[in-house]
């Protein structure tokens, strides 16, 4: 059993030595571009493999994890290292998955959330809503010691006029009733901002521990009961103390007026922000850690706004309230059709980063954010590179996963790391 060291100044917080505790092995399902995997890896867990069906997101994940020896997955020889769905995994490799029983400590994942999100249509018959069952099937086969399950807040709400329990209740019930003993589950709505992420981003978080690992003396413990204290300790570790991380603290080093622009390094006919290594806040210092000297962060390409669009954005910045979605009268005045369009407030948390680049307006410049700025608001470090198209549209949105979408769909790495460290703490408590 793992017995990590504790911080010298804080006995109830866990430090992790990856070399000393090599048995902390995880699988990431519905992995996207790798936000959850990155956070768990930074918390000391060792990735075995990740499952993601979209080729664009999978390419970003493998590109970043293969280029960092400390993050590289222990990919099984029997599993092709390419994009696939959880359905493909179950259909083609069920016997191999069963051979992993007793060898995997953690399964993590967040099935697609579009069918549950309050920001979307919330359709009960959305086929993506059933992907949680494939997560449960894989758990049932492998039977890891711990689970992390993440989804939007709407996952906990029943659909209108539906007699079925919420999907969160369905997952909990199925995990607790598995015929071989199942799991004890703990769940809560947590804001990512608790862990130093510069946006609230409320998420349903479920942690679970296999019932056979519990002893009578600790059968009633709840790892989420003191999550506020754990979050506080985590932020101390990251030197993000005292207050919510504001938009300006996150991205002020990427302003055009101070950094300047140059020709885009990856798209002809576009410009990009000039990346500078100097940090203007502790959060920026954390994000710049590990970035190669002389090599700028990627995905700093600026949108090519039309002259009328720039003028409209200037008027909005000068006359409209910041930090909240534009009221209807302001939208009508400025010809904004989107209901969720927010000019950011520099001294507040960002609104939730979505997959749509034109949901957010920069707080002081008449433009939407770059992919890199969105990644900062998601707490991706600057060394992490995003691959593929920047945007796509029309029918291709169902097939492609461009950079903005990869970032918007991701679990914030800082939040994932804090949860990974919390599970390490659970291991210590189990003894």
List keywords for this structure.
alpha/beta, 431 residues, 14 helices, single chain, DNA Methylase, Chain A, domain 2, Rossmann fold, six-stranded mixed β-sheet
What does this structure look like?
The chain is α/β, with parallel strands linked by helices. It has two domains: 6-239 and 412-430, Rossmann fold (3-Layer(aba) Sandwich), CATH 3.40.50.150; 247-394, Alpha-Beta Complex (DNA Methylase, Chain A, domain 2). The chain contains 14 helices and twelve strands. The protein has helices at residues 35-42, 55-66, 86-98, 131-142, 167-176, 227-237, 247-251, 256-259, 282-288, 307-319, 328-334, 371-377, 403-409, 413-430; strands at residues 6-7, 10-14, 25-29, 46-51, 106-109, 146-152, 183-191, 202-210, 261-263, 271-273, 342-343, 360-361. Helix 1 (35-42) packs across helix 14 (413-430) and helix 3 (86-98) runs parallel beside helix 4 (131-142).
Distance between the amino and carboxyl termini: 7 Å
Mean pLDDT rating? 88
Architecture of the largest domain, CATH level 2? 3-Layer(aba) Sandwich
The total strand number stands at 12
Shape by Cα distribution: globular
Order of helices and strands: EEEHEHHEHEHEEHHHEEHHHEEHHH
Domain count: the total is 2
Identify the strand order in the major beta sheet.
4-3-5-6-8-7
């Amino acid at each position: 059993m793992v017995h990590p060291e504790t911080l010298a100044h804080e006995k109830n917080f866990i430090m992790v030595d990856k070399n000393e505790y090599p048995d902390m092995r995880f699988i990431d399902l519905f992995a996207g571009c790798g936000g959850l995997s990155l956070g768990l890896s930074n918390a000391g867990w060792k990735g075995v493999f990740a499952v993601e069906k979209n080729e664009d997101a999978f390419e970003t994940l493998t590109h970043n994890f293969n280029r960092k020896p400390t993050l590289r997955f222990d990919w099984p020889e029997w599993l092709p290292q390419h994009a696939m769905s959880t359905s493909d995994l179950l259909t083609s490799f069920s016997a191999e998955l069963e051979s992993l029983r007793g060898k995997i400590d953690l399964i993590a994942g967040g099935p697609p959330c579009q069918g549950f999100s309050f920001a979307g249509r919330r359709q009960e018959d959305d086929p993506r809503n059933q992907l949680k069952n494939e997560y449960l099937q894989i758990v049932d086969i492998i039977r890891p010691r711990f689970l992390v399950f993440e989804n939007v807040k709407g996952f906990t709400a029943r659909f209108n006029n539906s007699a079925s329990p919420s999907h969160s209740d369905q997952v909990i019930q199925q995990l607790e009733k598995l015929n071989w003993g199942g799991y004890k589950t703990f769940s809560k709505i947590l804001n990512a901002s608790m862990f130093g992420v510069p946006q609230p981003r409320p998420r349903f978080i479920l942690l679970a521990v296999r019932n056979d690992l519990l002893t009578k003396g600790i059968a009633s413990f709840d790892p989420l009961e003191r999550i506020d204290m754990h979050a506080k300790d985590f932020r101390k570790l990251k030197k993000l103390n005292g207050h919510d991380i504001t938009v300006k603290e996150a991205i002020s080093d990427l302003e055009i007026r101070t950094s300047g622009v140059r020709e885009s390094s990856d798209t002809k006919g576009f410009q990009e922000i000039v990346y500078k290594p100097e940090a203007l806040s502790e959060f920026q210092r954390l994000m710049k850690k590990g970035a190669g000297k002389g090599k700028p962060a990627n995905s700093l390409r600026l949108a090519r706004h039309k002259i009328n669009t720039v003028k409209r954005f200037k008027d909005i910045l000068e006359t409209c309230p910041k930090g909240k979605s534009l009221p209807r009268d302001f939208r009508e005045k400025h010809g904004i059709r989107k209901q969720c369009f927010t000019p950011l407030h520099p001294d507040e948390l960002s609104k939730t980063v979505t997959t749509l680049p034109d949901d957010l307006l920069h707080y002081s410049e008449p433009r939407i954010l770059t992919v890199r700025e969105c990644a900062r608001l998601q707490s991706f470090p600057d060394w992490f590179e995003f691959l593929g198209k920047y945007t796509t549209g029309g029918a291709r949105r169902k097939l492609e996963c461009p950079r903005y979408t990869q970032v918007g769909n991701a679990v914030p790495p800082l939040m994932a790391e804090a949860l990974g460290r919390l599970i390490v703490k659970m291991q210590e408590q189990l003894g």
